[in-house]
Amino acid sequence: MASGSTPRAIASIVRSGPFKVALVFAGAVTITTYVLLALIYLNFASSNERLVSGIFENEILTTENTPIDQLKRQLSLRLTQDIRMLDYVGLYDADGRMTFGNVAPEIHVPLDGKAHLIYARPLNPDETGPEKALFVAVRRRDGGVLVLGRSLVYADELQASMLRGAAWALAPVVLLALLTGAIVSLRASKRLAELRDAINRVMQGDLHARLPARGTTDDIDALVRSVNQMLDEIVRLLQQIKSVGDNIAHDLRAPLAVMRARLERGLAGSSEEQLRELTSEALGDLQRAMTTVTALLRISELEGGLRRSAFDAVDLALVCRDAHELYEPLAEAKGVSLTLEAPHPVPVTGDGDLLREALANLVDNAVKFTPAGGRVAIVCGGPEALVRVADTGPGIAPGERDKIHKRFYRAQGTRHVPGVGLGLSMATTIVEMHGFGLRIGDNDPGSIFDITAAPTPTPSSSVTLPTRKAPVTA
Q: How many domains in the chain?
């Protein structure tokens, strides 16, 4: 196993993205360095040739008037002691015979006092092939010819040594880049394996598994956080679907059981009048069941999400006026005073129909639970909230205010009133969907429901309601 897994692990590292990046980096460093060295090499070679050419051209001009014997002594001394600048010497008489020097006969240099690059016979007898050299030749006043030459072999060897040194110096950089790529690749492969394992657990049904995050600010951690948030939302939606099914089954069980019992009682032998009564009661049970199912499906639809791109400008004052007009006849029939205070527009961004639905649920609850002679006030644009619905009903105990948002929950003292306990849940869903908050307070007596601009609930002060139908000061 080990012998087979090692090549696969190496192949995986080589194919990984970080290692490929390291290879590209190492290649770029290598190419850039060699291009730079080539430029330095060419510049050094050119500078060296220009330097030697200038020295020879100036020097050969100064020897035109030097006597022959003295010139020979000087050249002989330079050939044996000044090996840095002079390698070839050729002194010819007016007839073209060499009287002193080591220039090969086949070397022909133009007599123009300028440096020329010529390949000459090697000075070292152990070497083969011509070597590169610079030659300068000039005709003397006595008719003779003087040739001076400098081999460029040593300069070429120096330049080659520089290139070799630079190449050896570059090798650790390349190795370090490859080593860094391998280390980064191993770490990335390990992290990707952890992510794959977590994703496989999720795919196998463990929806509570999450991708491991390291608490850094890199791109992978940002992606991990986004995926985990997505999984949290998926779990929430699945739980919501399960909750909807459970709630529907739970809430339909009672009315269906009652309906079945009544129908069985009717089948047992009842008069025509009793059958009509039983049928009417069964239809009422069926209508309540359908109302419950419709409300639950509506809440699930809202909690499923609403595209904020569909939001538009909405005036909450108009929404409050619509709710007041809708429930004013119901309130009057019950003997409840329903008042409205909306002195100026309150523009927000949202879905007007949904906001009307949320406010209608709040007003419906207030009117439903407020006894005859009580008062309900709708205040829009007050200092405490965007919209406030206050009543003088039985109120909600502080210990129950965190529970009434739950589906089917009904506060103590209100369970005798018809309803299924979904109105406030629907209103809360719509309000939070718009980024608002729903705050519950005590009106002493009664309750206060504030739709606030901030989603974070804060304590609410009480509101004093008037005894007649008039604007209310929140």
A: 3
Category of 113 on φ-ψ map: left (φ > 0), alpha (ψ -120 to 50) or beta: left
Provide the β-strand partners of residue 134. 117, 150
**Calpha distance 236→42 (Å, rounded):** 70
Summarize pLDDT for 43-61 with one digit per residue, the tens.
777 777 777 777 777 777 7
* CA neighbor of 351 nearest in space, from 306, 311, 320: 311
Phi/psi at 134 (5° precision): -105, 130
Q: How far apart are CA 468 and CA 321, in angstroms?
A: 18
DSSP string, 152-167: -HHHHHHHHHHHHHHH
What is residue 376's predicted lDDT score, i.e. its pLDDT? Answer: 93
The answer to whether residue 462 is domain-embedded is: no
H-assigned helices in 304-396:
316-334, 352-369
| Paired residues of 91 in beta bridges | 100, 146
For the segment 181-204, what is each residue's pLDDT rounded down to a tens digit?
A: 777 777 777 888 888 898 998 888
Q: Are 230 and 257 contained in the same domain?
A: yes
**Which residue range(s) make up the domain with 262?**
219-303
Question: Which percentage of the chain shows pLDDT scores above 90?
Answer: 8
- 56-70, 117-131, 301-315, 435-449: range with lowest mean pLDDT: 301-315
pLDDT at 317: 92
Residue 461 domain flag: no
Which one of 171, 204, 237 terminates a domain?
Answer: 204
Looking at the fold, whether 175 and 224 belong to one and the same domain comes out as no
Instruction: Answer yes or no: do 229 and 94 share one domain.
Output: no
Report the alpha-carbon distance of residue 313 to residue 302 in Å, rounded.
20
Domain-ending residue, one of 303, 327, 362: 303
Q: What is the DSSP string of 254-302?
A: HHHHHHHHHHHHHHTT--HHHHHHHHHHHHHHHHHHHHHHHHHHHHHHH
| Residue 209 lies inside a defined structural domain of this protein | no
SS (H, E, C) 215-230: CCCCHHHHHHHHHHHH
Asked if 412 and 397 count as a contact pair (C-beta separation under 8 A), the reply is yes
Co-location of 431 and 351 in the same domain: yes
Q: Helix (H, G, I), strand (E, B), or coil: what is residue 375?
A: strand
* Dist CA 238 CA 240 (whole Å): 5
For 358, other C-beta atoms within 10 Å of its C-beta total: 30
The answer to the question of residue 158 being in a domain is: yes
Using the structure block, give the residue that is written with the tokens 């909306």: 342
Total-model pTM: 0.44
- Reported as type and span, the H/E element at residue 250 is helix 219-267
